[in-house]
Amino acid sequence: MAFRRLPTASCILEVERKFRTLNVRELTQHGGIPYFRSLQKLPVETIRDSYYDKSNMLSSAGVWVRKRNGEWQAKIKKGGNFTNSKFQELSHVDEIEALVKRVIGIGGATCSFGLQPVATFCTTRESWIADGEFRIVLDTMDFHHQVGEVELQKVLVSNNGDDTPNELQKQREMQLMDEKLVTFMQTYAWAFSVGEPKGKLTAYFELLRSQDD
User: Fold this and answer.
1) What ranges do the domains of the chain cover?
2) Strands in 20-83 per DSSP E
3) Residue 70, φ and ψ in degrees, nearest 5
């Protein structure tokens, strides 16, 4: 008997918790107690980001659209706050175009979806994979600001014929991911500095305002 394969729909979920900077000069597996079970340092990246918006309509709706190293990306806020964030990520141009059109009523990939660039900067990114699944990132921007985050990503798949996993599935999965992040950061508190982190866009716009004064 042949079985018909149901269409598979998926979405990328990301949960992250930010920190101000590392609390150690160099992050190593045995840099504090308890030790990381494993720690893999990834190659240093140079990232060029341009963020796009229109009269702050996207950011006010919890949507961020950017072109990262020439590739369009979008993040849709699904809960939390700046320090503790939950997102759905989009990377297909048609999905991003549909999202922009849904939020502000315009679209078009050939003209940056009808958006204008609001921030452009370069980032030097150091990153590590800890305990096999937690990605630790430390970003240093070219305007001398630093912020880090620990993140978990998961591809949530629907096999029941729906267009995408429903919101209840997404929220339930992101809650579990966030609980794992909390435990991870509490366990390895020696690695992360205390203090309120400041986002790269917040720091960028503060710098622009100070230069205009």
Assistant:
1) 9-212
2) 39-41, 45-53, 63-68, 71-80
3) 90, -5
- Partners of residue 130 on adjacent β-strands: 39, 134
pLDDT digits (tens, 9 = 90+) for 13-40: 889 999 999 999 999 999 999 999 999 9
**Cα Rg for the chain, rounded, in angstroms?**
19
Spatial distance between the Cα atoms of 208 and 213, rounded to a whole number of angstroms: 9
Cβ neighbours around 191 below 10 Å, total: 22
Q: List, for residues 73-106, the tens digit of each pLDDT value.
A: 999 988 877 778 888 889 889 999 999 999 988 7
Helix runs in 69-166, H state only: 93-104
Q: Where are the beta strands (DSSP E) in 20-61?
A: 39-41, 45-53
**For the CA atoms of 148, 41, 64, 169, what is the dihedral angle to 10 degrees?**
-100
DSSP designation for 4 = P
Bridge-based pairing of strands 84-90 and 116-130 is unpaired
pLDDT tens profile 124-158: 999 999 999 999 999 999 999 999 999 999 888 76
CATH for 9-212, options being 2.130.10.10, 1.20.1070.10, 2.40.320.10, 2.70.70.10: 2.40.320.10
Q: What is the largest CA-CA distance in the chain?
A: 74
Contacts for 24 with CB less than 8 Å, ≥ 6 apart: 31, 32, 190, 191
In whole angstroms, give the CA distance from residue 62 to residue 40: 32
